[in-house]
Amino acid sequence: MSADLSRVETWIFDLDNTLYPAECEYMALIEGKMTAFVMRETGLARDEAKALQKSYLHEHGTTLAGLMANHGIDPHAFLDEVHDVAMDRLLPDPALLAALTRLPGRRLVFTNGGSKHAARVLERLEIADLFEDVFHLEAADFVPKPAQATYENLVRIHGVDPRAAAFFEDSERNLKPAAVLGMATVLVGAHAAQCSADFVHHRTDKLPPFLMDARIRTAA
């Protein structure tokens, strides 16, 4: 049964592993760079660095936030280094382009990545022109999802009515603050079907067909 998103006027999308499939393993390249960064800055062995990386992700929302809080890392240097990876695993998807194009109203990207990374990925996917703006880590003053205040800042800065917005994410916990504000929430990815959280309103393993099948607002 298609999802009823007919009340949605603002479409908000996470970037990584949401606007492209996690199966391409592009994020694995970035995560490898993060591990190398943590190893160098802390002197830890690889396995210990990976464990710390995951711990910071869980406790602080991103590895970067944990490094900033505990090691005084310069966020700009970190983002420039870890996002300096080959883009060949990312390919434009005509189905995604068609699905996004049919959505009425505004489209925004809301990412825990930096501005340069977001711009590179959207250009590589050939969908940059479809989005009004990107709410990235710099815009969030480096306070990442799932901090509730960051969602509130997104809504305030971009004049979003949460009751007329939908948020698409591959991370279950990042959907809860959106639901608290009144947004419709959509969990994206192969793991979505196993999610039973009541703040997740819709689930899909593939974004383009979900968007194509959704019931959306029509012109008056």
Chain-wise SSE layout:
Elements: E1 4-5, E2 10-13, H1 26-42, H2 46-60, H3 63-71, H4 75-82, H5 94-101, E3 106-110, H6 115-124, E4 133-135, H7 148-158, E5 165-169, H8 176-181, E6 184-188, E7 202-204, H9 207-213, E8 215-216
Parallel strand pairs: 1-8, 2-3, 2-5, 3-4, 5-6, 6-7
Helix pairs in contact: 1-2, 2-3, 5-9
Written description of the protein model:
This protein has 2 domains: 4-21 and 90-216, Rossmann fold (3-Layer(aba) Sandwich), CATH 3.40.50; 26-82, Orthogonal Bundle (DNA polymerase, domain 1), CATH 1.10.150. Helices cover 41% and strands 13% of the residues. The protein has 220 residues and is an alpha/beta fold. The model has no long low-confidence stretch (mean pLDDT 95). Helix 2 (46-60) packs across helix 3. It has helices spanning 26-42, 46-60, 63-71, 75-82, 94-101, 115-124, 148-158, 176-181, 207-213, and strands at 4-5, 10-13, 106-110, 133-135, 165-169, 184-188, 202-204, 215-216.
Question: Which structural class do the helices and strands define?
Answer: alpha/beta
| Major beta sheet summary | 6 strands, parallel
The strands making up the biggest β-sheet line up spatially as 4-3-2-5-6-7
Percentage of residues in helical conformation: 40-55%
Distance between the termini: 24 Å
- Tally of structural domains: 2
Radius of gyration: 17 Å
Strand content: 5-15%
- The gross shape turns out to be globular
Uncertain regions: pLDDT < 50 for 5+ in a row?
Answer: none
- Tell me the series of helices and strands, N- to C-terminal: EEHHHHHEHEHEHEEHE
From the coordinates shown, what is the CATH architecture of the largest domain? 3-Layer(aba) Sandwich
Tally of DSSP helical segments = 9
The CATH topology annotation of the largest domain reads as Rossmann fold
